[in-house]
Amino acid sequence: MTSNLAPFAIFYAGALAIFLTQGRLRQAIVIAVPILGALNLFTLDQSMVIDGRVLDLTLSVFKADRMSMLFGYLFHLAALIGGIYSLNVKKSGELAAGMLYAGSALGAVFAGDMITLFVFWELLAVTSVFLILARGTTRAQSAAMRYMLIQVLSGVILLTGILLRYAATGSIAFGHIGLDGSLASLLIFLAFGIKAGFPLLHNWLTDSYPEATAGGTVYLSAFTTKVAIYALARAFAGTEILVDIGAVMTMFPIFYAVIENDLRRVLAYSMINQLGFMVVGIGLGTDLAMNGAISHAFNDVIFKGLLFMSMGAVLHRTGKINGSDLGGLYKSMPKTAFFCIIGAASISAFPLFSGFVSKSMVMVAALEGGHPWVWLALLFASAGVFHHAGIKIPFFAFFAHDSGIRCKEAPTNMLIAMGISAAICVFNGVYPWALYSLLPFPVDYAPYTMTHVLTQTQLLFFSALAFTLLKIFHVYPPELPGINIDSDWSYRWLLPRLARNFVHTFAPLDRGFRQMFRNSVTVLVAVVNRHHGPQGVLARATPASSMVLWVLVLLIAYMGVYFFT
Question: What is the DSSP letter of 173?
Fold first, then answer.
């Protein structure tokens, strides 16, 4: 039996059911929707195309191939894990927003044309912002507004690029575009880059993700950026400049993550670092590189989600998330600490963990493609991510100094969600061929060679040694309360100060102009009043009233003109 139901429709219907129900029925729907959606996806005819006509355009609401199917499986899995993790959430709106958000991501990856992609691109922004607002804090509200502005801006740029491309080519097909020198391709590339977290366009991610609810961050880490990676892989595979952009993305977040105190913000920077590996792979464009980028996107959703879940559990139990406030929590939350360590080992690419079997595909592809400097950059980034995500996150949250905080272990539903993610991290690391069989291109790559295992083990060992020495000699940046900003200093620090300086400089001049204007008006009013006021020359009760005077003047003028003409 085959299905012909678009995957997003099940999630949208599920969101409505979640919003209208409560209690255990609502919890059952949260779990049932991604399971039913996955069953629908398994029975879908991949050759099927669902079309519809709007005005003179034929839109493809559903179109599948191996790449979109892999992202479809991934998003169903992420929605299931996120749903289980959020079962203790009392707000129907937050749970419904998560379901709508997952459905929008599915709609985007199965979009067969650019207009359909744009619609779901915007729905991603609208639905996800409620996951930030649900936190209910002033900081969350401010971050949500900035997040919404950037996401809508990305949509406007995307729509402009689509319309320009349609005007030039008459096509709205969602396929390979490439940077062909046209403004349309550049705008579409820029729109994808904003959501993918390109350097200097990434601040919405580090600004908003740490301000979302514990469950909201898990959803956020899975969908928006991965839809952007999918779109880049679909439209800009083999675009050379992506190699350089991706290399920068892998490196610059390391420095900010090391000095950051908010551990969820550390993970946000770490996400940009991992997205960089995927962008490099897409830029290289070879079969091995593309497989590496897409398989790393799959693994990143799982292990990054696991790390966000562990930090969300800490925040849920302690109300704190800064490294300077935590420590010693392994005594109260040993299971959460264990799952966090598995996530840390996976993102650090330890042998037998998921990151090891996907990240290395991109690095090998960089060497084979003649990019040794990019390979070195990725090697440096691999060591850096071990520092800030592999060591720093579990060390400062669960070990380091004893903060004295004693709390309960994470709720059961959170532990189950973390357990599922941890099991997938280990399974993909031990037996990667199940994941490899789903990739869009044939895989001719063996991750467990002696050279690769030894090289990676040495890298991790020396990176751990460097961290230990830096801590012993008190060189490692201390965890200090505060907010670190990077390029967002332009609008969070520079622009407000420029505005204040502008007002301070030009305020006297402004006051002078306004005073001069008021004086001029006062003088004018006085003159008019002197001539036309109750005691004015033209308004006095004299034998010759002003009306008679003006009539006489006009009569004389008329006679003069008549006489001379």
Answer: B
Distance CA(53)–CA(38), nearest Å, equals: 28
Cα–Cα distance, 518 to 536 (Å, whole number): 23
Q: Please tell me the distance from the alpha carbon of residue 94 to that of residue 100, in angstroms, as a whole number.
A: 10
CB 346 within 8 A of CB 355: yes
pLDDT per residue over 224-282, tens digit each? Answer: 999 999 999 999 999 999 999 999 999 999 988 888 889 999 999 999 999 999 999 99
Q: What φ, ψ does residue 448 adopt, rounded to 5°? A: -95, 70
Cα 488–chain centre separation: 14
Dihedrals φ, ψ of 311, to 5°?
-70, -30
Residues facing residue 3 across a β-bridge: 44
Give the separation between CA 202 and CA 486, rounded to whole angstroms. 10
pLDDT digits (tens, 9 = 90+) for 27-37: 999 999 999 99
Asked whether the beta carbons of 372 and 364 are under 8 A apart, the reply is no
Separation CA 553–CA 160 (nearest Å): 66
Distances (CA, A) of 170 to 56, 155, 162, 165: 11, 20, 10, 7
